Every structure is written in C-alpha cells, then in structure tokens.
C-alpha cells in the first residue's frame, strides 16, 4: 500500500525480526516486521494484520515530527519510541534531569541565604550543597518510581511478571520524564511567572509518565493515574522525612 524511499535513515531498525519484536502503533498488536525491502531502494511499510493499518508510519517521519507528537502525548508516538526504535538514552537522560532539578534547588537555596557575597557562592561548602540536592532529588525520584511499581504490581501483577517487563516500564518512565529539562530555561529566563511555569512543567511530566505507563502496559487511563498518585504520596513522604531531619529540600 505504501511504497517509498526510506533508504538512508539511520534510525530505522532491522527490516525483519522474530514475531513480537515490534508493535503496531495503532492497535498495539505484535508484528514481525516494520517494512519489507524489495531491493533497489524500494521499501514498503508493513500492514498490521489486526487493524489493517501501517504497523509504524513514523519510520518515514522526520525525528522532529516524532518529537512534536511525543510532546502532544500521542500514544502512537510513544509506541514507536518504546517498541520500534533502539533508543538507549534513558539512563543518561535520567542523570541529566536529576542534575537540572538539583541545580534548581541549589539555586533556590542560594537565593534564600542571607549571605550573598560572590566569594561565598564559590566556596567548597556550597559545592557540597549541590551534591546534597542531587542526592535528595535522586531519592525522591526513586521513591516515586517505587510507589508506581508497587501499585501496578499490586493491582495488576500479571502485567509485571518478568524482569524485562520491569525494565521496559522503567525505561518508559525515565524517557517520559524529559520535560524536566525545561527546568533550566525556566530558571535562566526568570520571570514573575516562573513558579507557575515550574508547576506546569511538573504537571506535563506527570501526564507524560501516565501516557508512558498506559502505552507500555496497554492499560486504561485510570490505573496509571492511580499509580502516579501513590508514587507522589511516597515521594512526599520522603520529603517530609528529610524536613523532620532538619534538611532544607
């Protein structure tokens, strides 16, 4: 049905694979291939046997278009990224997002300090404040993820039966937290509406997390939000614990 010159795109995965290696982005059914190579530069997108639609139309889309669709939280774009590509940046993305969050907290800690002398801001102790904020942000993120996993495992244990299921969901949650990268521009271009922008970023990240859970486990909309709610409860519990210990978080 669809023929085109997909040749030359380095982001394309292998043409053939074992059954279940890929997913149809429309109906989430397993597929053995995304496209078929007829040689001489002619490739044809495979058609899903279940819904009779292209298995993955995004393999011929520009990455910018895919990114925009992911920002709009389209399930098809999430399925393409999670199941039909070989993206392996979730670990690095997680570290970078934590660094952004730690920097934001560290900056707010400096603003709240009474001593604002330039020499004081570059002292060795201030550097350890940043490391402390990074550790706190890491523990809060971990507690949030643990709360989600516990809730999903308790509500739908059949969805998380193997180690690969846990790894796939963890990868989806880390990749869907890319919105935290917007924390740095929000701080650099500080404005009277910065607190409102930070709140919108938080909401956007939670919406992305919910969509990642829904797409990965093929759930309805309610259960992912329930898992996120319990994740937030556990995260806020960790925050309260730090505050009782006298730590400025």
Automatic annotation (TrEMBL):
- As recorded in Swiss-Prot or TrEMBL, the protein's gene is named Arv1
Q: What is the documented function of this protein?
A: Mediator of sterol homeostasis involved in sterol uptake, trafficking and distribution into membranes.
> Which sequence ranges are marked TM in the entry?
133-154, 166-189, 196-217, 223-242
Q: Which organism is it from?
A: Nyctibius bracteatus
Q: Name one GO cellular component term.
A: Golgi apparatus
Q: Which InterPro entries match?
A: Arv1
* Alphabetical keyword list: Endoplasmic reticulum, Lipid metabolism, Lipid transport, Membrane, Transmembrane, Transmembrane helix, Transport
KW Transport (keyword) present: yes
> What kind of membrane protein is this, topologically?
Multi-pass membrane protein
State the family it belongs to.
Answer: Belongs to the ARV1 family.
- Protein name, UniProt field: Protein ARV
